[in-house]
Amino acid sequence: MIEVDVVILGAGAAGLFAAGECLLRGRRVVVLDHAAHPGEKIRISGGGRCNFTNRALTRQNAPERFLSGNPRFALSALSRFTPADFIARVDRAGIAWHEKHLGQLFCDGKAGQIIDMLLAPLRDGGLEPGVTIDTVEREGEGFLVHTSEGTVRAASVIVATGGKSIPKIGASGLGYRIAEGFGLKVTETRPALVPLTFSEQDLARTAPLSGIAVEATVSAGRTRFTEPVLFTHRGLSGPAILQISSYWREGDSLHVDLAPGRDIAGELAKMRGEAGRIALHNALARLLPEKLAQLVVADAGLSGRLADQNNDKLRALAARLHGWEIRPVGSEGYRTAEVTLGGVDTDELDARTMMAKRVPGLYFIGEVVDVTGWLGGYNFQWAWSSGWAAGQVA
Ligand code: FDA
């Protein structure tokens, strides 16, 4: 039997970061993971360059940018370990980075640099990959963790097993089962930051657009995002769709403006004076991707030259572009979802320490908790901040 102060379940972003913090305090730590390699999601994140935080995050906008049963729960950890704090660690490790847009920070080089930084405190041991975790049980004031390699006894257990997204690289839902085993509530979970899929009928119309990306404003209820949308052979993807997927529910329609902030009817009317002889779809193709222009013109039941269209027709055409209503039938699911919405109910946890209020010594950090960020580095920041919070006390 191994005896340590802290056993951490999951060698992902949150677990590795918490391990480093516990080690700084002189705690004896072991990190267990069933995967052969630690931090696999970090490695594939941000197109291989890891969008490791977002510096547009503020105390004011955090409740909007992190979805949770209690939108204020994450504030404590996020404001005590901030994006600037993580950037300072990245700088200290000599990792070069750049800002893309909307505050998103990426490594200049490979995401593996972030994994190396997180693994540095564990270079003398403490990381145990390839271990199957069977059960976690209370023993006196501490815990026993039974695994494929034997039992670990520890005063504290930090559950950092992430969500259900991308089972192929290790996601398992174990953390939810551990929480429920201790009688803690877990909120409904569902795939988020995920492409949405269309019915056969809608796909038959949009399939020719597969591969085309346009800047669009996508709304579900009162929530809207203006970013690129990508047509796929299953439906829609791209940043605006991934973002709205966290808010969309089965049965809801999406409102899509395929030319946000533009006066398409006005632009066509102006073009009519100079180039009225060209076909309407070719005129629209000067403003939008060609295949999209063809589809919208055909859908509007219009044909002929631009000069043949009166202002009412141009306005009707533009209205279709600015107000496309589409009802996805589902999502691509956990196979491709970047994160899992829902998780261990925040009512069960102390926001300052991430410890279960009813089970002293048991902590939950990262994606396993019912805190889900927007696309753009928010989810890693939650992993660092919640890992830091538990790492100060466990
Ligand atoms: P994480 O999933 O990282 O780690 C959990 C660990 O627990 C894994 O190592 C897993 O093997 C282990 N585990 C699970 N079940 C186990 C079991 N039964 N036994 C033992 N071990 C077990 N976010 C962001 O902010 N910026 C970005 O650029 C991206 N990009 C991105 C791309 C892709 C393709 C995905 C899928 C996700 C992202 N994300 C992201 C989201 C981000 O990766 C995610 O929010 C964090 O990795 C969550 O960190 P955790 O440590 O909580 O879980």
Automatic annotation (TrEMBL):
Domain RsdA/BaiN/AoA(So)-like Rossmann fold-like: 5-392
Keywords: FAD, Flavoprotein
Membrane-traversing stretches: none
InterPro entries the record matches: BaiN-like (IPR004792), BaiN-like_dom_sf (IPR023166), FAD/NAD-bd_sf (IPR036188), RsdA/BaiN/AoA(So)-like_dom (IPR055178), RsdA/BaiN/AoA(So)_Rossmann (IPR057661)
Domain RsdA/BaiN/AoA(So)-like insert: 190-339
The keyword Amino-acid biosynthesis appears for this protein: no
Pfam family of the protein (one): HI0933_like_1st
The keyword Secreted is assigned to this record: no
Cofactor: FAD
Protein name, per record: NAD(P)/FAD-dependent oxidoreductase
